[in-house]
Amino acid sequence: MRNVTKRRASPEVLEAIAAIVGGDRVSTNSSVLEHHCKGETYHDLEPADAVVFAETTEEVSAIARICNNHSVPVIPFGTGTSVEGGTAAPFGGICVDLSRMNDVLHVSREDMDAKVQAGVTRKQLNSHLRDTGLFFPIDPGADASIGGMASTRASGTNAVRYGTMKDNLLGLTVVLPNGSVVHTGGRAKKSSAGYDLTRLFCGAEGTLGIITEVTVRLHGIPEKVGAATCAFRTIEDAVECVIAVIQHGIPIARVELVDEVQIKASNSFSKLSMTVAPTLFMEFHGSPASVNDQIERVTAIAEDVGGSKFEWADDPEHRDRLWQARHDAYYAILALKPGSRAWTTDTCVPISHLADCILAAKKSVIAHDLTASIVGHVGDGNFHSIICIDPNDRDEVARARAFNSELVERAISVGGTCTGEHGIGVGKIPYLAREQADAMPLMWAIKTAIDPKNVMNPGKVLPMPF
Amino acid sequence: MRNVTKRRASPEVLEAIAAIVGGDRVSTNSSVLEHHCKGETYHDLEPADAVVFAETTEEVSAIARICNNHSVPVIPFGTGTSVEGGTAAPFGGICVDLSRMNDVLHVSREDMDAKVQAGVTRKQLNSHLRDTGLFFPIDPGADASIGGMASTRASGTNAVRYGTMKDNLLGLTVVLPNGSVVHTGGRAKKSSAGYDLTRLFCGAEGTLGIITEVTVRLHGIPEKVGAATCAFRTIEDAVECVIAVIQHGIPIARVELVDEVQIKASNSFSKLSMTVAPTLFMEFHGSPASVNDQIERVTAIAEDVGGSKFEWADDPEHRDRLWQARHDAYYAILALKPGSRAWTTDTCVPISHLADCILAAKKSVIAHDLTASIVGHVGDGNFHSIICIDPNDRDEVARARAFNSELVERAISVGGTCTGEHGIGVGKIPYLAREQADAMPLMWAIKTAIDPKNVMNPGKVLPMPF
Q1: Percent of chain A with pLDDT over 70
Q2: Model-level pTM?
Q3: How far is CA B227 from CA A171, A192, B308, B410, in A?
Q4: Can you point out the beta strands (E) in A314-452?
Q5: Cα gap B218→B130, rounded to integer Å
Q6: Does A453 touch chain B (CB under 8 A)?
Q7: Containing H/E element for B313?
Q8: Inter-chain CB proximity B188 and A287 less than 8 Å
Q9: Do B232 and B308 touch, CB atoms closer than 8 A?
């Protein structure tokens, strides 16, 4: 395999790109470079050689063609909220910032879809939709760009009801390494027309091409939203409750597990007085009758497994307060160790193994002498351990790494995955190679066929071959 | 591009395969060959040179390796219910019959998933699940194999609520052309781990490899099922009703449109006395309270657009009777022209264009002097025109072809697709090339990377290149 060493963008390349976009949209300023590589991550990342602010698909195409001709890496950038180092430039190259491509191109109320440029963020799209009665449900926490979310196969708290990015994409515009522009999918709600290129680029993390436009499904804003919390004696009880809710086909919109460590941290950080116990945070969407029906049925299930009395809220302000411990989880746990950074794990397992995996993780946190809580998108079997680390404490970083490895090994051993929603980036490459061992040659065959010079986001997702 | 001419399986190849599976599982009997190529289709199809009855993934792997070494085509076969000629062998080769690979390997009630061999049919799986409280919802009509359904990205009447095959796959075991075996996906409900190979093979119609095992999501059998029919003055009114139902987020499980031509044919065929008018056939799943809520809301919406009084049913027998006109549609329309065969179109369009497209199709049926009805998975914008043709009447076949071409052109012009659920096969290759024009080189690049000798189901899906 070629091209696994540094390939700096030469002045010639920068000039050729400046000739396309204008010199004022090509930056080699060190703080701009730094800003474009850091992400929301514990990784130490290397910046690109230059950042180019693209404004059209045609510009992205021209930039890709120039870089490909010179074998210079291209690193797509949306909002820089990657958790696994997707914004790094380990082999140098050009960071293509798509944040100025932020037009909502088309919204159809009847068809409940929207076409946006890749730099549109999810909050921007939802603001734009305000008067339509529709919303875009994928909520990974950060206000990520829709292009980045598609590239990472992102999801978040609403996925248990509304699916992940892969389920909400109808079509993409993608710039390939050679600069050609491909339109995948379409606007039909379903299709059996040829290879599913939309799903191939979704989750490829920019290693096969740069997504410049995205057509997404929208959903009707529910007539009523009800929120609730319920404390449980044990993690097992909380998980058992969720399994029963899902088995009964109750269309719960959100169901998040927050462990007692996190509740304690949140009580302190957000000045709350929640019971310090494993707690489910829930949200129900639907008609008033449907929400009431869901509430009744979930209450009965929770009672059966010894859950506490429910706290309820249905107006937005009260709902926000009720969910505050969940919303503030990240900052609350970091506040336990001032100056620390977060290392967030992301395993996802079959739900029958969820309680075991969480309990094992909690034991392992203690064994490795770490400060960490657990929050989880428990309806999908996906949970995060948020570990507070001092990046300068090498021993602590090593212990966090060992903890994460154990977590991943356990997840893989029960048929789960090292990443439910954060992606592979630079941080999980060895785990992908473990988890999808017999598929690695096939992934490389696809990569090589589409990107023979390995210019598209090299050093991400796939382990260096052979 | 090589290998686009006939490549017959030589006696040497047949002997090598017989040495793996035993001579009694290799057949060159002409009626066996004929049976394995006909499908449920109007196409004239060429049979393979031999049919091999495989029983394990290892056997499929060995067969693929032998065929690849000799550049002999491999045509996977499940139940032979392909509509678009997926079972044909236009370049000769070996048909690999997977129907004996029909073990349900694993079912998990807690995780609501099942792993099956590719030859398990959807009805067989649902029988197997009878005592679990779970079911597999994808219902394309025919009792297709799960492997075939995955390969075709099949869906059917339940897709509006439960999604299509792509949404219900967790993982696959696939034999690649060179005989290597790849496991894609896993058992986690969601994953961001590397390229989505599961979705790549789903809908590839056996042109990239042979699916031998499938892990699918299951769903809880709803506590209550309610069925209904409602007649409308016009197609537009019926579609407007469906749009409103979907916009309101009512989780309708099935909503099928049957036009007045079909109702008339069904009245005669099934001795019914339904009002001869465009009619919606609906089904609602959920708790008793939820089903009642859905019924109330849909009734109100239908009244608003001038729908008739609803006919209701909730016990299975009565539901079947109510839906009989929909269930018998295929045979009822064929009975209008005894001795005819069906040519079923499959366009899928954004729902805002559905009424227009259906009305244009109905005019076009008259203009081309055809006998055809329309039934549709209207919640997804997918509709079928079932055309009765005499395969020996060349002029009629040509008129049907012209009609279908117009239908497809119109669908593509509004952002839709030539195939919502039947696949491309041999029948829709030129339409795929029209619809996904700029993606064809990319599809070929993937095909060539994975199947360089073009042995996997050649002559399907992709147009002959360049």
Answers
A1: 98
A2: 0.97
A3: 34, 28, 15, 33
A4: 341-344, 371-377, 382-389
A5: 12
A6: no
A7: strand B311-313
A8: no
A9: yes
pLDDT score for A466 = 41
> CA separation (Å) from B278 to B229, B231, B257?
10, 6, 7
pLDDT at B23: 96
What is the distance between the alpha carbons of residues B94 and B98, in angstroms, rounded to a whole number? 12
pLDDT, tens only, A229-250: 999 999 999 999 999 999 999 9
Residue pair B182/A438 in contact (Cβ under 8 Å)? The answer is yes
Q: What contacts B131, CB < 8 A, 6 or more positions away?
A: none
Are B221 and A230 a contacting pair, CB within 8 Å? no
pLDDT of residue A170: 98
Residues B99-116 have a mean pLDDT of 98
Is the distance from CB of B333 to CB of B367 less than 8 angstroms? no
Q: What share of chain A is helix, strand, coil (3-state, %, to 5)?
A: 40, 20, 40
CA of A86 to nearest chain B CA: how many angstroms apart? Answer: 13
**Residue B1 binned pLDDT confidence (cut-offs 50, 70, 90):** very low
Give per-residue pLDDT as tens, B371-386.
999 999 999 999 999 9
Query: What structural domains and CATH numbers belong to chain B?
Result: 104-220 (3.30.465.10), 224-328 (3.30.70.3450), 337-423 (3.30.70.2740)
Q: Mapped to the 3 state alphabet, what secondary structure does B113-175 carry?
A: EEEEECCCEHHHHHHHCHHHCEECCCCCCCCCEHHHHHHHCCCCCCHHHHCCHHHHEEEEEEE
Angle formed by the axes of helices B11-21 and B57-69, to 10°?
A: 160
Percentage of the residues of chain B whose pLDDT score is greater than 70? 98
Cβ–Cβ below 8 Å for A193 and B419: yes
Distance separating alpha carbons of residues A54 and A63, to the nearest angstrom:
9
Q: Give B246's contacts in chain A (Cβ within 8 Å).
A: 112, 220
Indicate the burial class of A126 (C-beta count within 10 angstroms; 0-12, 13-18, 19 or more): middle
Note whether B219 contacts A: Cβ–Cβ < 8 A.
yes
∠ at Cα B259 (B258, B265), nearest 5°?
Answer: 90
Q: Within 10 Å of residue A222's Cβ, how many Cβ atoms?
A: 20
**CA–CA distances in Å: residue B25 to residues A77, A103, A172, B42, B181:** 55, 60, 45, 29, 22
Note whether B252 and B161 are within 8 A (CB). yes
Distance CA A413, CA B448 (A): 34
Q: By CA distance, what is B154's nearest residue in A?
A: A192
Which DSSP symbol is given to B272?
A: -
How is residue B274 written in tokens? Answer: 């339904």
- Using CA atoms of B456, B457, B462, B465 in order, give the dihedral in degrees to the nearest 10: 70
Of A102, A109, A142, A99, which is closest to residue A124 (Cα–Cα)? A102
| Contacts of residue B29, Cβ cutoff 8 Å, sequence gap at least 6 | none
CA distance B105 to B96: 21
**With contacts defined as CB-CB under 8 Å, which chain B residues touch A203?**
192, 194-196
Question: Angle between the A235-247 and A288-304 helix axes, to the nearest 10 degrees?
Answer: 140
* ipTM confidence: 0.97
Q: How far apart are CA B76 and CA B36, in angstroms?
A: 10
Q: Which two tokens stand for residue A203?
A: 């989750």
The per-residue pLDDT for B465 is: 61
Instruction: Check CB contact of A178 with chain B, cutoff 8 Å.
Output: no
CA A392, A398, A403, A409 dihedral sign is positive
The strand pair at A50-53 and A94-97 is best described as parallel
pLDDT at A465 over 90: no
The strand pairing partners of B286, in sequence order, are B224
Q: Is A74 on the interface with B (CB under 8 A)?
A: no
Intra-chain end-to-end CA distance of chain B, in Å = 8
Nearest CA-CA partner of A433 in B192, B179, B194: B194
